[in-house]
């Protein structure tokens, strides 16, 4: 095993590259135009990319913005008194800002302090902390930022509480910002036990995201050349790798929904004593960005390390000696992306955007892991109350963007505690929007909708107009990958539902730039947890009853009237309400994924001549059989016809089920009257007589259920008969 000797004073890649490019930076002031944040797409997870000030604007055109949720421009320095520096190459920041916002990507700025002594001096000074918070808040206002990123490298244990206090105060400043809630992300070290200056649980609960810098496990000054970001622990490289880092963060109290797994778009090239794995270094390693590492590996020969699941290459320089470069390529990064996804983290991210310029490999890996292509995991929801707030984030502390109206339909693709994430039009100034759907029982603000057609935007930006044609005014714009519900089509134009923009609840788009998908629910798996069932425990022959089911929707589609209860050849078959002998139509609340609600199925007890226990097991069925077993077990009694031994009616007989007509017979002491009603309560037959009952019924009636009532001076007999098709 190779043990890493770790110094807590090592200089990380962020610091190394920040200072190495500093002489290139332009700190002149450039006018900055605030552009409202636009909205697009449906990344199911976040992807958070640092973009350093030295990345040229020519590389921005190769960013796939639909695969990014956040960009943090790197960086603005904070001195030990809490004063902020200028934005380096601010013209680049402004250009990137406009590109990002028009495509729905949130824009942050990273605020840095490098060197633990500088970090400690700053954190030990309350006035400096407050000064920095005030200046950061002002910069957020002046530049229209969506949030901030704090990167202090690194925090020592002696100032642990002061750092937590600083983050606490900054977090609440961002929560209550004058422009509305802003985000706070924190750059965090790769290995928690090595950095006791961070209260991992506290920082997790007092931020919007922890960006784990899951790199520099081997750093520029390592004594042994090895993987910069090992994927799994191994006997060769030791216990620390991205997999064990994730586990450690959870052990230290951070929550999955706050963790961003940051991965490297670079490697280190070390001079080494040999070409063998585990070779000692002869000096400091130089950073090699992704595009050059890939090119070099093609020249020297890409090698694969099965211990760390990362690539490397080696080469010999005449007059110098052996070199080894350890890096990450698209395959090793793909493995790390799947770690983030399969660990249910908030997402992943990178250091740094632009390092892969000219290559699509990493973007393709991101798309294959994090992109959810409609209709997968997409569902249509419908507003179920007159007015429903539509907010920037999943909680009442987020700004209200607009108020949606009854029966408006939107496409959802993610939820958090019954807050549903929907697509929101671009020029309305939001990234995406959230609506609270209610729990499904006490509060039913959103319900499912099925059978709709949804449309996905295929253009980079698409105008939404007041009418079907380019002569109509533009209401807003929507972006690549966004999905909306189609209302109607006219002459090559599609009218879509949009959250209210001014007075507009719908808008028109060219069909040329839309991909249509019908009934998205049919492309998704259904699942449910059965929480409770209610039904009578005792019934008479042929009695109808209702099965009431309390259910939690665990699937990716809403319930509807095509959600059946299924049991093969069930004894509780009811010909009037079942589709066939196996499937029961259910009614009730059309609950969304993650809602709890009630569904109802109509049943009929079988005909029995003696008291019988009847049992059957049902499961839900839509496109697939799903959910747990629903077990019915009831006692069925034979139908009662004689009231008691002193009854005036004797030998009364009628067949309960018939096809053409049915004969009523019996003996009566005195006068009697018979009335027969259909299921609506309408009287369809009446007969009076004396002493003897003898008549036929049904030849003029349609199929269905009929209820009869036989009255004498002292007795009443009630029952029902069924005419079949």
Automatic annotation (TrEMBL):
GO terms for molecular function: chitin binding; hydrolase activity, hydrolyzing O-glycosyl compounds. Residues 39-373 form the GH18 domain. Residues 452-518 form the SH3b domain. GO terms for biological process: oligosaccharide catabolic process. The keyword Coiled coil does not apply. It holds the Pfam family Glyco_hydro_18. Keywords: Glycosidase, Hydrolase. It comes from the Bacteria. InterPro entries: Chitinase_II/V-like_cat (IPR011583), Chitinase_insertion_sf (IPR029070), GH (IPR017853), GH18_Domain-Containing (IPR051887), Glyco_hydro18_cat (IPR001223), Glyco_hydro_18_chit_AS (IPR001579), Secre_tail (IPR026444), SH3-like_bac-type (IPR003646). This is T9SS type A sorting domain-containing protein. It comes from candidate division WOR-3 bacterium.
């Amino acid at each position: 095993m190779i043990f890493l000797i770790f110094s807590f004073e090592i200089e990380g890649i962020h610091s190394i590259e920040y200072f190495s490019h500093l002489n290139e930076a332009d700190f002149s002031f450039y006018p900055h135009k605030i552009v409202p944040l636009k909205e697009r797409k449906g990344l199911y997870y976040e992807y958070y990319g640092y973009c350093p000030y030295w990345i040229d604007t020519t590389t921005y055109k190769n960013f796939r913005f639909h695969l990014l949720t956040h960009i943090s421009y790197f960086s603005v320095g904070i001195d030990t008194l809490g004063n902020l520096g200028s934005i380096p190459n601010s013209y680049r920041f402004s250009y990137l800002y406009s590109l990002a916002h028009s495509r729905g990507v949130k824009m942050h700025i990273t605020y840095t302090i490098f060197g633990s002594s500088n970090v400690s001096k700053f954190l030990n000074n309350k006035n400096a902390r407050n000064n920095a918070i005030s200046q950061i808040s002002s910069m957020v206002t002046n530049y229209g930022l969506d949030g901030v990123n704090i990167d202090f490298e690194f925090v020592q244990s002696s100032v642990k509480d002061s750092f937590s206090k600083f983050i606490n105060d900054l977090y609440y400043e961002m929560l209550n910002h004058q422009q509305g809630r802003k985000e706070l992300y924190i750059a965090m070290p790769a290995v928690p036990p090595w950095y006791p200056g961070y209260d991992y649980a506290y920082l997790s609960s007092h931020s919007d995201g922890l960006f784990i810098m899951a790199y520099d496990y081997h750093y520029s000054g390592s004594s042994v050349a090895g993987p910069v970001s090992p994927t799994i622990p191994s006997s060769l490289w030791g216990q620390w790798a991205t997999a064990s880092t994730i586990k450690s963060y959870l052990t230290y109290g951070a929550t999955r929904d706050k963790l961003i797994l940051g991965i490297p778009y670079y490697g280190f090239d070390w001079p080494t004593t040999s070409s063998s794995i585990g070779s000692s270094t002869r000096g400091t390693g130089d950073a090699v960005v992704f595009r050059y590492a890939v090119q070099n590996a093609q020249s020297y020969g890409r090698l694969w390390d099965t211990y760390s699941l990362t690539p490397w290459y080696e080469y010999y320089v005449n007059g110098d000696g052996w070199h080894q470069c350890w890096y990450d390529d698209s395959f090793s990064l793909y493995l790390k992306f799947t770690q983030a996804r399969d660990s249910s983290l908030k997402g992943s991210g990178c250091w740094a955007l632009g390092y892969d310029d000219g290559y699509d490999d990493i973007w393709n890996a991101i798309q294959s892991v994090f992109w959810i292509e409609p209709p997968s995991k997409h569902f249509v929801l419908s507003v179920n109350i007159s007015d429903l707030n539509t907010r920037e984030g999943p909680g009442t502390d987020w700004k209200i963007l607009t108020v949606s109206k009854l029966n408006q339909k939107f496409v959802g693709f993610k939820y958090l505690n019954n807050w549903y994430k929907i697509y929101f039009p671009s020029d309305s100034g939001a990234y995406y929007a959230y609506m609270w759907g209610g729990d499904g029982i006490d509060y039913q603000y959103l319900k499912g909708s099925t059978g709709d057609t949804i449309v996905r935007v295929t253009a980079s930006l698409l105008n939404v107009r007041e009418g079907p044609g380019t002569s109509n005014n533009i209401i807003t714009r929507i972006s690549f990958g966004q999905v909306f519900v189609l209302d109607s089509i006219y002459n090559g134009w599609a009218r879509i539902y949009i959250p209210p923009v001014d007075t507009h609840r719908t808008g028109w788009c060219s069909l040329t730039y839309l991909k249509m998908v019908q009934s998205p629910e049919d492309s998704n798996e259904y699942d449910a947890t059965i929480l409770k069932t209610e039904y009578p425990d005792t019934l008479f022959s042929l009695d109808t009853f209702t099965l009431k089911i309390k259910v939690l929707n665990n699937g990716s589609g809403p319930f509807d009237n095509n959600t059946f209860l299924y049991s093969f050849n069930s004894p509780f078959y009811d010909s009037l309400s079942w589709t066939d002998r196996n499937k029961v139509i259910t009614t009730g609340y059309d609950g969304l994924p993650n809602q709890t609600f009630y569904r109802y199925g109509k049943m009929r007890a079988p005909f029995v001549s003696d008291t019988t226990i009847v049992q059957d097991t049902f499961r839900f069925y839509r496109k697939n059989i799903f959910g747990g077993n629903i077990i019915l077990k009831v006692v069925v009694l034979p139908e009662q016809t004689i009231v008691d031994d002193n009854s005036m009616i004797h030998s009364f007989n009628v067949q309960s089920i018939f096809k053409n007509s049915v004969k009523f017979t019996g003996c009566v002491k005195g006068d009697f009257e018979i009335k027969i009603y259909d299921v609506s309560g309408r009287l369809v037959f009446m007969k009076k007589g004396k002493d003897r009952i003898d008549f036929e019924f049904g030849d003029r009636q349609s199929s269905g259920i009929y209820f009869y009532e036989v009255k004498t001076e002292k007795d009443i007999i009630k029952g029902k008969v069924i005419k079949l098709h």
